[in-house]
Every structure is written in structure tokens, then in C-alpha cells.
Amino acid sequence: MQQPTPNEHFKLQLPTELEALPQALQWFEKIALQLLPQQAYWQCQVALAEGFTNVVRHAHQGLPPTTSIDLEILLWDRCFEIRIWDWGKPFDLKAKLQELNPDNLNDPFYEGGRGLMFIQKLTDELHYCRQADKRNCLTMRKGLI
């Protein structure tokens, strides 16, 4: 079954460095500020920032800064989708989320997996899968209705 074509599709490629996060957020703002209700905009912005930071700190740990992080935004009739592509080792997102303790979400000193818990709370759907080209894709969806 063929997936329908999104109404809008945007791409950005950035190096693996935290200093590139402001560029990712500016790109996101130019696209999403006019498309999303304010609350959904802020939720997706935080999810993007957490996802990008996780790639830099974890997925691409030990890889050269020139390793690309690919970002995509897709706008469908009823949802807004952010995809973050990385070259790291794959992991089981569902298993990781199950082992995390949600009570730690409010602990300012707890770091292990906190970003994933934020992303899960802020999005309606969250997926992470290995692709045939040996990249991983974190897909975050937010419903528009």
C-alpha cells in the first residue's frame, strides 16, 4: 500500500554538533509558526530540540562532527510530522521508554532518558526504526485536529 503524499515537505541537513541546534530551531520556526496552533508549536519545538540533542550526544557519540543529521518536516491534512535521521547504532525505543521511570521527569538532576520521556509526552505518536540505508529515523507526529 502506497503512503499518501504530504501536502508540504521540508528538509534540512546539519552537522553533528550542538552549535547547530539554533539553526534547526530557526528553520523549524520559519515553517511551523504559521502552520501550528501555539501549544502544538511549542510542543513540537521542544520535541525537535530534544531529538536533535539526543542524536548529537548519544546516537552520534564518537562519530565525526561532519556526520550529517537530516531533519524533515511533513505536513499532512491531519498531522504534523518531524523526522530526525541519524547514523548511530539502533536501539529499541519502546523497550527504553518502558524501562524509564516517569517519576524522574520532574527531577532536574535526572538525565538518563529524560529527553525521550519529554518527547513521548509532547507528541501523539513516536517511532524509531532502522532503515535499509543503515540510518535510523525518529518520527514524531502531532495531530492537527
Textual characterization of the structure:
The protein is of the alpha+beta class and 145 residues long. Helices cover 34% and strands 26% of the residues. The protein has 4 helices and 5 strands, in the order βααββααββ. The protein has a 5-stranded antiparallel β-sheet with strand order 1-2-3-5-4, covered by helices on one side. The longest helix is centred in the middle third of the chain and has 22 residues. 22% of the residues are buried.
Short key terms for the protein model shown above:
single chain, 145 residues, alpha+beta, 5 strands, 34% helix
Secondary structure layout:
Layout (H helix, E strand, L loop, with lengths): L7 E8 L5 H12 L5 H22 L8 E8 L3 E8 L6 H7 L14 H9 L2 E6 L5 E8 L2
Antiparallel strand pairs: 1-2, 2-3, 3-5, 4-5
Helix pairs in contact: 1-2, 2-4
Please count the helical segments. Answer: 4
Tell me, briefly, the overall form. Answer: globular
Average pLDDT level: 89
Q: Roughly how many Å apart are the termini?
A: 25 Å
Quickly give the structural class: alpha+beta
Largest sheet: 5 strands, antiparallel
Low-confidence runs of at least 5 consecutive residues: none
Alpha carbon gyration radius: 15 Å
Order of helices and strands: EHHEEHHEE
Strand content: 25-35%
How are the strands of the largest sheet arranged? 1-2-3-5-4
How many strand segments? 5
Portion of residues within helices: 25-40%
